[in-house]
Amino acid sequence: MNLITVSGPPSVGKTSVILKTIESLKNRGLKVGVVKFDCLYTDDDTLYEKAGIEVRKGLSGGLCPDHYFVSNIEEVVDWGIRNGFDLLVSESAGLCNRCSPYIKGINAVCVIDNLSGIGTPKKIGPMLKSADIVVITKGDIVSQAEREVFASRVHSVNPKAVILHVNGLTGQGSFELSTLLFSEKDHITSLKGKTLRFSMPAALCSYCLGETRIGESYQMGNVRKIDLGKEQ
Amino acid sequence: MIDQMTIGTLLEKYPFARTFLENNGVDPDTSMDQSLHDFFSAIDENTKEEMAIDPAHFISRLNEYISQMLSFLGETGSTVESLTILPGHYKTGEDERFSDLTIQKNEIISIVGPTGSGKSRLLGDIEWAARNDTPTGRTILINGQEPEKKWRYSSSEKLVAQLSQNMNFVMDLSVYEFLSLHAESRLITEKESVLERILDQANLLAGESFSQDTPITSLSGGQSRALMIADTAILSKSPIILIDEIENAGIDRKKALNLLVSEGKIVLMATHDPILALMGDRRIVIKNGGIETILETTDKEREILSQIEEMDRKIQSLRSRLRRGETLTGIE
After folding, report:
1. Using one digit for the tens of pLDDT, what is the confidence trace for B165-184?
2. Which of the listed residues B12, B124, B162, B233 has the most CB atoms within 10 Å of its CB?
3. What's the rounded Cα separation, in Å, for the pair B226 and B224?
4. Do A148 and B19 touch (CB under 8 A)?
5. Selection from A95, A149, A187, A102 nearest residue B57 by Cα
6. Contacts of A92 (CB under 8 A, 6+ apart)
7. A64: pLDDT confidence band, cut at 50, 70 and 90?
8. B263-274 burial, b if ≥16 CB within 10 A, otherwise e?
9. Distance of CA B324 to CAs B207, B252, B317, Å?
């Protein structure tokens, strides 16, 4: 089975892109499954079900969504293998714009949209910088110039990635994306021994442990203070 | 090794690397005398963690960026003289019946057919430089030959630029700042003269003129389209332009098409508007996912075109008279 991790900020169109891309993969006779990781709520699983795609969802609830992702992905892969998928797609939102749930040796796709502003590529951390494929969406509603500028900004932070434009509504570009996603040589049988491409943000302060009160005396563990400058 | 020389030397050698450094969280101006190696050594593990910087990954991406930019700058400009489409098949699997279609530089081709008939797929085939490996089984040739790989995977060189009705400017910039940004992303050396030319051309296309200080988001529909077209014609590197309708308001569409072809572009135009459709030298008729036929615009049609252009002119003049607050007394 091949595994691909797809991530990107909320509402960029990850699910639409994946749905359209799976259509093309199905036409090649491949059996595809999806696991959707989200934070508090998602009904994207019903969209996949409607399209006849085997799907599981995982909600991290009170946990950091990306930490939740790493602690579950191994079991998810085993589930995919038991189901005989040729390809398993994991979809997750990079909520803090830093995280990348990318794994060394596993194809990583980052989805971002043209509407997010040209400063965005600079703001997104390893999620964008260490992706193998960057998919840019919503290109149908901005000008050609903005598309070109945005793509060049993405290129300047991740020159190694293949950059593709995909329209999640019409599916334009999704066939092209599908040709990059499956290869016999990328088969895996387990994630045992694999590592993340980049460390996740450190956590564990008193608020991670359920503290709700505000004030210095309640703050313990990993705490950092904002620099407000010197007062006159 | 690029991580051993000082950042100052690095930028002297590769001025464009500034963009990379800035976009990746390194402010070159405060560390000109330092090498990247020293720069990274000076920051502790914690800060690296916080900045989400992995020095080895950083250097390898910078190397890649520099080598791509050097080859980009070194290119003498591979011009696209012609585009050829070899037939594939309809959605039903039946073979397309045209033999082959070659479109020369400076030519305008319209594409007609009902919604969902396969216009976007045709565009997709061209954009992806299909090699009998897309759902339609078509093959695309550039200058009569199998296209280079870069047309598929390069981020700076795409075969097709698109102009569509739904497009808007979303950046909060003045016309000048906006065009500068685009020119800089293309590493244009004579920026000022290029920008001036774009603004002049855009103003020739737009009914109402605008200045370089106008914020792009406050341009009227016609002005926006005029600017998008002038910018795409002059500043976009893509040799093929796909137009998805051009609304008939506030812009001289004939001049717009002439501008695109005079800049050496191949123009493909999906439209249901008779004026635009007949402005093409030929038109592709699409049906059931396939190219049904290719029609030459006949002399009779050209005659009809000038008649409908006349009607159009009348409607436009009524429009502007109403706009000026006049009472209509007849159609000129």
Report:
1. 888 888 889 999 999 999 98
2. B233
3. 5
4. no
5. A102
6. A5, A6, A7, A36, A37, A38, A65, A66, A69, A101
7. confident
8. bebbbbbbbebe
9. 14, 19, 11
- Tokens, residue A117: 């502003």
For A184-226, the pLDDT digits (tens) are 899 999 888 888 888 777 667 777 777 788 888 888 877 777 8
- B151 interfacial to chain A (CB closer than 8 Å): no
* Structure confidence at residue B237 (pLDDT): 84
The CATH code of domain B107-117+154-297 reads 3.40.50.300
Cβ of A148 and B185 within 8 Å?
Answer: yes
With a threshold of 0.90, tell me whether the complex ipTM lies above it.
Answer: no
Nearest-angstrom CA–CA distance, B164 and B319: 23
How confident is the model at residue A135, as a pLDDT? 96
Whether residue B120 lies within 8 A of chain A, CB to CB, comes out as yes
Q: Which tokens in the block code for residue B93? A: 């699997």
Of chain B, the end-to-end C-alpha distance in Å amounts to: 74
| A2-186+198-218: in CATH 3.40.50.300 | yes
